[in-house]
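Hey all, quick one. A colleague (J.T.) asked me to put the magnesium ion job into the tracker so the inputs and the structure tokens live in one place instead of scattered across chat threads. No bug as far as I know, just bookkeeping. Sequence used:
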Amino acid sequence: MSAGVGVDLENLWIRFGDFVAVRDANVNINGGEFFSFLGPSGCGKTTILRAVSGFLDPSEGNVLIGGKNMKGIGPNKRPTALIFQNLALFPLMKIWENITFSMEIKGASAAQRRKRADELLDMIALPGQGDKLPSELSGGQRQRVAIARALCAEPDVLLLDEPLSALDLKLRQHMRTELREIQQRVGITFIYITHDQGEALTMSDSIAVMRAGVIDQIADGKTIYNDPNTAFAASFVGENNVFRGKVKKVMDNEVLISTNRSGDLVARVSTANQGKMSEGDAAMMFIRPEAFTIAPTGAAGDHFVTARVNHEEFEGNAFNIFTEGEGGKEIKVSIPNHGQSFEDHTGQNITLEYETRNAVAVPAGELAAE
Amino acid sequence: MPGFLKEFFNRNGIGMGAAILGFVLFWTIGLIILPQLSMLDFSFRPNLPPPEIGGPKDVYTLENYKYLVFGPEGGSQDYNTVDLRVFFRTLVAAVCVTIFNLIICYPIAYYLGQTEGSHIRIFAIMLIIPYWINEILRAFALRIIFGETGVLNTLFVGLGIWDVPFDFIRNDIALYAGLGYAYILLMIFPMYNVIESLDRNQIEAARDLGAPWWRIHWRVVIPYAKPGISSGCTMVFMLSAGALAAPQILGGPSSLWFTQLIYQQFNDNNDWPQGAAYAIVLLVTCILFVLAVMRLFKVNMGDIGK
Ligand SMILES: Nc1ncnc2c1ncn2[C@@H]1O[C@H](COP(=O)(O)OP(=O)(O)O)[C@@H](O)[C@H]1O
Ligand SMILES: [Mg+2]
């Protein structure tokens, strides 16, 4: 896995005038890794990618590819290939010419290019389509042509800027699997940008969660999902219920939080914040919808929440219960459906139970916008 | 009624539709087609004094066209070498002006089209403002620059770079500069229009795949800009070949432009049929030439309208 070429960002700052688009980013991407930058639109993901590909000079700090500082090296000389958000296929070139454009530059003969194009077209499951124009292909097919064109340049690092965002849901999910397969087959480093946490979680070896120019957390998907560093990471990745309050008591790696509406609740302090939360601090606590179970009425304690049910819905694989929560926000509870009978609680008070390890406490902070 | 007409009337209403249609028809037929047809008619008739018009001598003839090729009947030469030479020289010179113009304007159009910022607007205005000045003034202003005692000669002779003033006018440099300058906008704007709509990402994609700048232009920008390039080149070629003021003012004494011959026929010789025949030969040749070049570069007629 570590055979490929790694990418390092060292103290990277990128400013546009007074505006700071990327603030002191430090990232080590291992060779051969599928690495994602995940963050909402406008948080600086494309900007980072452009700095890696060489279209943008960092204001401060360095981009290293394969340990080599890229300062002063133009995009046409870097061992990277970028797949643009809008693909940017050449509309007047045939598919095979598009795919082998990088070989044309190196002076390869038409016959060589044809041959390579056919190989790549087979790989992306579009055999025999080389003589069409990009406009004659569907969105998903164009997507794959863009990948083939980038791979044809034999880059050490493939950079992908939200490449699936233009596709419909079904195709997007299919392409996730396909991209992951391609990455494992070619074994080069992929740096993938997305605002879709599902994409990041399913495909990546590692994920950097970004918020307004700042990287909050870098970890594998499971860690980010289960052990977020910040309120933003907890609320941006996956669905989460937030409980606001103050730290009432610190017990090793657990805290008791006096919440605004749900009484005193116990939570595990997320790994990065252990030892950093003290009594009286404003805190937030996150519990995922699927981490709740319905407890017998009357149960009470520091891992029980009692709330009134607003409404319920049946989603097929789960029953969703929405109860009154803080500040107009509801608490969502998701009970997996395995054929059990399920009574309607609408209008009733129910008691919800969770396990302490499933409640994560972080210092109070900015939440992701809905 | 064909579908497009029906839709046209539905959209504009019968009254308004009829008015628009009537105006367009008047414009195209009354002001363009009929006068040109009467020119065509002239060109096939002998030049007769007014009393004989409509008389027995007023018959269709190819004389006026023959004259361009063979000269006056019983003349000393087999071919009308003087006029033919002017004719071909004009065409070649118009091609040169067009190419020269294209080379200068492409970088400007590319810069205007692909750069962002408010200074682009200022550049565009600076390009447009000189065109408020009429053509004659602009041409004479160039004489001030290129004349024997003009700015350039004064400068270079004064600096001791040249011993004697260089005759820009006799060497046609002033003429080419004048023609090139006259149509610069007609070259820049069609190209600018197309290049402006080119997705920057395509240029960056080509660069990312390793292309040097010239190949990006050759493979990505120029093919995309082809409709604009052909539109600009066609206009500059047609207008250069048909220009009159610039050759009159900036041409050397010996360098006649074919339009000047046409003008002489109409004006000095008072031979409208002959003038009409020359003008039609010029027009038809230019059209055929443009169509041939368009075919060579695989440009569609529809692209010209872009
Ligand atoms: N060339 C630029 N000039 C000024 N601001 C820019 C420029 N490029 C990006 N930005 C700003 O930087 C921020 C991050 O942009 P971007 O990296 O494109 O975000 P995203 O995460 O959606 O890809 C945005 O607020 C954007 O407006
Ligand atoms: Mg982006």
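Adding what we noticed when we looked at it: The two ends of chain B are 29 Å apart (CA to CA). Chain B touches chain A through 17 residues (CB under 8 Å).
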